[in-house]
Design a protein that fits this description.
globular
Length: 479
């Protein structure tokens, strides 16, 4: 039997895995392998491209302030006064953080299609409104509403994806979904550059048109969301009953939570008391912080190297293409080896190397190469941490709570990124580099801690010294 069909993590002895597989054959064995593959491919194509595109637009809409700033918004709205730009960037994350858990509760209540449509259309309207703001204060107002509607979106996507697949199939899917957003995010600067040439049309500046066109496109995607987005496996309508049974059987055999459990206040408090959720959240914050910093400041950093505005926008794309490639490679390796912490640590070291090069070398070519490494290391850790967390929990309620908490922590990483790369530290932003390095070393310490704890728990359960892990007999933590 393939080890990916076992509930055991990769730290188990071979004889333990073989013994378990002999007693508990994977339910895939009861289905035609061609049927299994065909069903999974159907789900992949129905789910990942659309959800990836939606997240790409969400990421572009939340981080396009940097591009709009270079297209005239800084002068028109007087963002050069004090820390106005950092405040406008940061204010989005306050509702984004606070509304994560309520969003996932509403998701299960009204269903994925309705909830995601509300989120997408809502933030599209907020984005469209940003194209008509006359002052800095109205920009901040629209950014708050952007945060309100995007708060329920990303955790809902991750929650939905992780309910469809077995544990060691998840990271590749999250990586493909995130890969789409990385590529679109990288080329969004070129798109915005082209849109900025509409300057003067309708009496509006180039930055106004960036928000207007992207807002209209987002609203159109909201309609497509209503028409095509898949729901949870037990509710989806695009599968046959036999295909639905296959998916639910595979999830049940893998981790025993194919049937959703009822969300209650007591369960929320119980799940929030699990310290490992907060460790995962700290790791996710450490990963998103450099990713957001690149999104908000890469064009500004490139301009600090002496490049023109046009060349800065053009040079923004290649680091994102490289990050998309490395993110997928590490996801495949991680799923193949069934190891999470090891490969997350490697990507941390890549990010650290890039930060040092960008912060301390004087050659512009070397500093630009450092941005490739920073973006690759940070971007790969985002789906990696989400997969690491999803692999080590059971039950829909805990998945909903943990996903919301972890992604909320990512919002804190966004606040961190927008406030430590200060205008007065231009052009090298060394305090921001130091803070980002501190986050990466913090994550390395967290990975050492989770590896130690999960290994110890697996050993204790294997030797009969404790009860079932996560309350699920046969469940072992993924290291």
């Amino acid at each position: 039997m393939a080890s990916s069909d076992s509930k055991h993590s990769s730290d188990l002895k071979v004889e333990d895995v073989e013994k378990h597989d002999a007693l508990n054959p994977a339910l895939d064995a009861h289905y035609d392998p061609v049927f299994v593959t065909k069903t999974l491919r159907l789900i992949d194509w129905r789910m990942l491209p659309l959800l990836g595109l939606l997240y790409a637009i969400a990421l572009i809409d939340r981080t396009n302030l940097g591009i709009a700033r270079t297209a005239g918004m800084e002068v028109d709205l007087k963002l050069y006064i004090g820390e106005r730009y950092s405040i406008a960037s940061m204010i989005y994350f306050i509702p984004y953080i606070l509304l994560q858990i309520p969003g996932n509760i509403v998701l299960r209540w009204i269903g994925a299609r309705s909830w995601l449509t509300i989120c997408v259309v809502g933030w599209g309207i907020a984005q469209l409104g940003m194209g008509f703001v006359p002052t800095w204060g109205w920009l901040v107002f629209c950014r708050v509403w952007l945060g309100v509607f995007e708060a329920g979106f990303f955790p809902a996507l991750v929650f939905i994806i992780t309910t469809w697949y077995k544990r060691h199939e998840v990271q590749k899917r999250l990586a493909v979904f995130y890969l789409v957003s990385i590529v679109f995010g990288g080329f969004s600067s070129l798109l915005a550059f082209g849109i900025a040439f509409l300057k003067g049309k309708g009496g509006l500046n180039g930055w106004n048109w960036i928000f207007i066109i992207e807002g209209i496109f987002t609203i159109v995607l909201g309609v497509l969301t209503w028409l095509f987005v898949p729901d949870f496996p037990d509710r989806s309508r695009f599968l046959t009953e036999e295909q639905r049974k296959l998916i639910l059987d595979r999830v049940e055999a893998d981790r025993g939570d194919s049937v959703p459990d009822q969300m209650t206040g007591a369960k929320i408090l119980k799940h929030l008391s699990d310290p490992m959720i907060w460790v995962m959240a700290l790791m996710f914050m450490s990963s998103t912080m450099p990713a957001y910093a690149i999104g908000f400041f890469i064009t500004i950093i490139l301009r600090s190297m002496g490049y023109t505005t046009t060349m800065s926008l053009v040079l923004t794309a290649p680091p994102y293409v490289f990050a998309a490639l490395t993110t997928f490679i590490f996801a495949v390796i991680s799923d193949k080896t069934q190891k999470r912490a090891l490969w997350l640590g490697v990507q941390n070291l890549i990010c650290i190397t890039g930060l040092v090069i960008t912060g301390y070398t004087k050659n512009n070519g070397a500093r630009y190469f450092g941005l490739f490494l920073v973006n690759a290391g940070a971007s790969g850790c985002i789906p990696g941490v989400l997969a690491y967390s999803a692999n080590n929990i059971t039950s829909h309620t805990k998945r909903a709570v943990s996903t919301a908490v972890i992604i909320a922590a990512g919002g804190i990483g966004g606040i961190f990124a927008t406030t430590i790369y200060r205008q007065k530290d231009f052009p090298r932003y060394l305090p921001g580099i130091w803070a980002t390095l501190a986050c990466q070393f913090t994550m390395l310490l967290c990975l050492c801690f989770t590896t130690y704890v999960f290994t110890k728990r697996n050993k204790a359960y294997r030797e009969g010294k404790c009860g079932p892990l996560e309350g699920q007999p046969g469940f072992y933590h993924t290291i």
